[in-house]
Design brief:
MCAfunc domain-containing protein
């Protein structure tokens, strides 16, 4: 596997997203699924880029855990896309729906961790309003 764990260790979410997009372009099997996953993570990458440009990550240490989990999910997504480059067409055909299920599973996992980030910022904003004496009706 080209992008083994040693290569992706220390790579942040944005780096993993770029690797997924690049690998999806050269997938030989399950190309449509790889391209859909690449489009999905590209949108997430744009959102993460905006998040990184704010100081929200510095102010909210609670964001680190879901982002770490997101990075792990992105590593699994990269492994899946890489397998579409390395496995033979016959092997992937034999795997059939199992591979499709893996794509769905990794997209759902990515989305699950991504949904936690706005929730954390909402909780933080609520706490800040409570501490500043502002009451919310």
């Amino acid at each position: 596997m080209m992008a083994n764990l040693a290569q992706v260790a220390g790579v942040n979410a944005l780096g993993l997203i770029n690797m997924i997009i690049s690998s999806a372009r050269t997938a030989t099997t399950q190309r449509r699924n790889c391209e859909q996953l690449a489009e999905h993570v590209k949108i997430i990458g744009n959102l993460l880029e905006k998040l990184r440009s704010t100081d929200l990550m510095m102010r909210l240490p609670a964001i680190k855990e879901p982002l770490d989990c997101l990075e792990e999910a992105l590593k699994r997504a990269l492994e899946l896309v890489e397998s579409c480059r390395e496995k033979s067409y016959l092997y992937m055909l034999a795997m059939g729906w199992s591979v499709v299920y893996q794509f769905r599973q990794v997209q759902n996992e990515i989305d699950r961790y991504l949904r936690l980030v706005p929730l954390i910022s909402l909780v933080h904003e609520f706490r800040m309003q409570q501490f500043s004496g502002i009451t919310i009706l």
